[in-house]
Amino acid sequence: MTTADGRFRDAAPHAKAWPFEEARRLLKRIGGKTPEKGYVLFETGYGPSGLPHIGTFGEVARTSMVRHAFEQLCDIPTKLIAFSDDMDGMRKVPDNVPNKHILTQHLGRQLTEVPDPFGTHAGFAQHNNARLREFLDQFGFDYEFLSSTECYTSGRFDAALLAVLKHYDAIQAIMLPTLGEERRASYSPFLPIDPESRLVQQVPVLETDPERGTILYRRADGAEIETKVTGGACKLQWKPDWAMRWFALDVDYEMSGKDLIESVKQSSQITRALGGRPPEGFHYELFLDEKGEKISKSKGNGLTMEEWLAYAPEESLALYMFTKPRTAKRLYFDIIPKTVDEYLAHLDRYGDLGPEKQIDNPLWHIHGGAPPESGSPLSFSLLLNLAGVCNTDDPSVLWGFISRYAPDATPDSAPLLDRLVGYAVKYYQDFVKPGKHYRPATQDEAAAIADLRAALAALPDHSEAEDIQSAVYAVGKARDYENLREWFQILYQVLLGQDQGPRMGSFIALYGQPETLALIDKALAGEDLSAA
User: Fold this and answer.
1) CATH number of the domain enclosing 87
2) Which range marks the domain in which residue 414 is found?
3) What is the pTM of this model?
4) 292 CB neighbour count, 10 Å cutoff
5) Any bridge partners for residue 229, and if so which?
6) Would residue 323 count as lying in a domain?
7) Strand 234-236 to strand 190-192: parallel, antiparallel, or no bridges (unpaired)?
8) How far apart are CA 133 and CA 5, in angstroms?
9) Residue 141 lies in a domain
10) Which of 171, 225, 326, 363 could form a disulfide with 371 if both were Cys (CB 3.0 to 4.6 A apart)?
């Protein structure tokens, strides 16, 4: 739990950001009092059937934002659980793992008993759990990790499992109407673990005995077997399992994707049937890939956490999660530069705001109320274009230009800028450079660009970016470009090899006036700028 910052305590009740809206609902739910268990429990769930993906991180990040907002409203202790549903049976082999043949022969076994195709952990789920925890730890989340397998086998869920057995008929009455005819015939909340094959079985339950804590089921080979429902001998179907977990842990708040709205309703009904109270919730929209399709762990489409963080700082990823959580957003590489620059823009404004405005700024939620004091004097898009004209994979080359443009900035004094330089070089090499296409200027365009060269040559050395920008504008207007966007696009296509680009005044000031003149000369001479 974090301590509320006194500067924001007065502003918190009136904050408009969505985490505060959620926090106020939660505070109302508990009547403003500490629950009997001594804390308010936030939960996030994770299915380790595939590698952790960016949506998993998003759920933990967003839940943590609500938790932090809640802690500004009151002094009630809080706890966040990251729960792995790792006792599920493996239904199919994911597409994005090595050594798939290792997994194929273990279909149907619980994920913690499936061998790790990566060869680093005792099981597939243990590997994926470790990947999740490593990332959450790297980001600094305050959480407690719980494994479904451990909770079942240790007896932690035994009392709740016996409650499910006791209310078996009521749960069936909730679930059966939601199923097709064929599934209804064999459906039971309990999935016995076969002691011989270790398969998680979906089989008909013939009898239940709440007094003895057992069920009698018919195995696929026709044998009738009695088993306890406690101690890890059975797993619950996922909707009853979700409800049982809410009941057993007394969860107060859990988010879920919009695709689970009906599942939440059914699990909530089951929780009430057990005598518990379902948590408050928040339905966020799903992430889509470049084609507009839902991102899937098993498909491996869309971005992974590791891929985003290879090209941009983690703060930008957190901003992407904060912004418009109820809006479906595409998640692919092209949105990274835009998100980074949005982060930098928020950081530039933050220090000029009062507490009542800061608390609604995304950075307050991303950084737990304490954003960094300094940002970057250069945008990410500008660094990408500098990397483009330099055509280099060496960050020190970019720093040579930056040091001249911003003499006070060094890798030590501007650590965020230094990180962005490294990201920009890598992003340029992997995504921008392959798509660059320089086109020759038409005769009229070449004349306009020659006018721009003359205008730049007439400016004093080391002119301010605004003065350079004014000169670029003046040439475009003098050449009768009614829409100056057309003029700038010509410059981008001819000089930078792309359809979009930076504010030209800022770019030229950074790259240097003599260097820009040389670039124009090469373009007008028809030289290959891609080899520059």
Assistant:
1) 3.40.50.620
2) 380-435
3) 0.89
4) 8
5) none
6) no
7) antiparallel
8) 28
9) yes
10) 363
